[in-house]
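Example complex used in Figure S2.
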Amino acid sequence: MTTKHIACIGAGYVGGPTMAVIAMKCPQYRVTVADTNTSRIAAWLTDALPIYEPGLLEVVQAARGRNLFFTTDIAGAIREAEIIFVSVNTPTKTFGDGAGKAADLQYWEKVAREILREARTDKIVIEKSTLPVKTAQIMETILNAEGGRLHFEVISNPEFLAEGTAVRDLLHPNRVLIGSRETTRGLIARQEIVDIYANWVPAGRIVTSNVWSAELSKLVANAFLAQRISSINSISALCEKTDANIREVAHAVGMDERIGNRFLNASVGFGGSCFKKDILNLVYICESYGLSEIARYWEAVLTMNEYQEQRFVRTMIREMFNTMVGKRIALFGFAFKADTSDTRESPAIYVGRKLLEEKAVVVITDPRALENARLDFAGVDGRIHFAEDPYDAARGAHAVALLTEWELYRSLSWEDIYQSMEKPAFVFDGRNILDHKRLHEIGFNVYPLGAPPLTHFHDRGARRGGSSGY
Ligand SMILES: NC(=O)c1ccc[n+]([C@@H]2O[C@H](COP(=O)([O-])OP(=O)(O)OC[C@H]3O[C@@H](n4cnc5c(N)ncnc54)[C@H](O)[C@@H]3O)[C@@H](O)[C@H]2O)c1
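Predicted assembly (470 residues):
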């Protein structure tokens, strides 16, 4: 059997794990992951991988050096491969037309031009990055700029993995989506990609479609997931006004099988590199097709997320007697979710910045994301500190704000933490994962989301009613 060569341009959170799993499951393919970022590539070649994902190191070790390779030689990787996945970043545009909404396609376009420049044989080019619907058309235009010297078939194969569970999601995907042109050559290319996944994914979970449906489905899936979080968060605010309890409401609502119980946990808000940018992108696309009502509808998901983040900090300030000046606040968790080191768009960044604006002293602790947290606050003055150990972070603090749902925070000795803190001691549970009753019994003033606070203040009602206008 001849070995097929796969290249992946972009060795990030998607390119790295995706290709590692393909290589592990398909020894008959030679997989080369290429990136311009030399330190990232160097880290993929060690056991200190550039990203943290449970189980990833074992997968990489199983294939690295056998049929999985990492390189900065982009041109070489393109030339050797018959199949090229493109998994570069597609952030929100920060300049010019569409700034703040449209996808910035400069990295994608650069890769397309590089493929055209380096290719000596026909290629299947796969959109692994999340892209606006109709991007494949642009790619085809660029790739065919030399008048059909070679044939490039563009396929959309969006990635649905979630950070923190990337390896599990890749090994056991609930679906793999492969979209192509419905021409003879398009269908042949589609089958080539189906054949890769068929090595470990059951046939019923490999879904094929036209290329535009595949591109759009990824944006819509992320919009729906984010919408659920914003929906439950919106109701958490109502619960706090009405003495209903969001956990009880979510449980009752989620038992309806048509609704389901996943993604119904109220929180300080969603983060991550994708939800916000993909919704902004969807909004921009709707606007560009004149669908302003649809754009406003999806934009509200983001408005609600910002509201929830703001509301969280405002509650902290109000309940801590309307001043944070000089108060030490421990942020438990900085990653945008548990089991990842990724802090992109993490609500903790917003919370940290706001507290610094209020002249608080902020101490960040996180089991995996401290390095990224330091980068997020690079250049900030001496009122920000970092602690590996949550007990160190909490010592002398006036409040703990729990911002990432790391399992370890449930099993800490909250008695010891309470003893080491300034009194009155506050806990603001931005993920609603702690045992609030127990914390209250220890002595904390506890602020869950979407439920009445459990405090030791007798004038709570009067003080809340007379707050500073938030
Ligand atoms: N992170 C996720 O959970 C996730 C999930 C599904 C889809 N996606 C999508 O996948 C894409 C990649 O996301 P990510 O999180 O892996 O991004 P990332 O920033 O972690 O990785 C992208 C990599 O591409 C490299 N790159 C950029 N331009 C390049 C070029 N011209 N040549 C070679 N390398 C280049 C960068 O150096 C970087 O290492 C995005 O479109 C994202 O929306 C991400």
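The chain has 18 helices and 14 strands. The pocket of nicotinamide-adenine-dinucleotide is lined by residues 9-15, 35-37, 40, 74, 87-90, 107, 110-111, 129-130, 159, 161, 163, 273-274 (CB under 6 Å).
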